[in-house]
Description:
Elements: E1 2-8, H1 14-21, H2 23-27, E2 33-39, H3 50-66, E3 74-77, H4 85-91, E4 96-97, H5 99-110, E5 114-117, H6 124-134, E6 140-144, H7 161-178, E7 182-185, H8 194-200, E8 205-206, H9 208-222, H10 239-252
Parallel strand pairs: 1-2, 1-3, 3-4, 5-6, 5-7, 7-8
Helix pairs in contact: 3-4, 3-10, 5-9
Amino acid sequence: MSKVLVIVPFPLDEEGVENRRAQLREAGVSDSTEFVFRPVKAGPRLFDSEHDALLGDVALTEVGIAARDEGFDAICIDSLSDSGLGAMRSVFDIPVVGPGRSAILTAMMLGEKFSFITMWEPWSHTYKKTLKSMGLESFCASVRWPTGLVPDFSKLLGGKEEEVFPKLLETSQQCIADGADVIILGSTTMHEAQEFLSQHLPVPVINPGPLSYKLAELFVSLRLTQSRLAYPNPAQPQYAGFTRMLEALADEE
């Protein structure tokens, strides 16, 4: 049996983690793969700035490094920020999958232009940063969000479907008018909206979390992982420092 670590980017309780684990039902993963969801000890509050992006890199990397001797076959990042992706790829020989980059590249296989729909305007900088780093800005038709919505990182969209789903549908339709022929959900906190949107839109709707799980399974089965030329190992790793930083941050919070 394969074993995949999914790193949750917030210090959630079990109920909050379970809401993230629900993405597995949408992914249709194999019974021969065990997915372990593990939250960070502490970290960014909102992922709305470069300040939070830096904290996210450290917080998620610490979880991965702490689990390096537990026999995982792959790691998935449960955030479109792809926080810690490069750092963990430099440390691990197992595949590390980020849903942000995975969703963008998959969208390019399914259409010519894609758009991100998100719950909250401050998250838009994350997608733009990733697109710029990949040199793919010209393939993004737009980034749009409804007004008046506030993200809930623990409960997600539960109990708010009647309010949120129509707004996300209207926003997606605006993206199609912008020229998008593929829609990407802009957060793993939005995974519950994918089925509704797919039923009401004439274009594919990519759910990045489940996509990353399937890719992790694929890479493990094909024995593929990141290139060591692209992600060289650190000559003098300082793994204990990540734990000390997160312990200090957790104490402060």
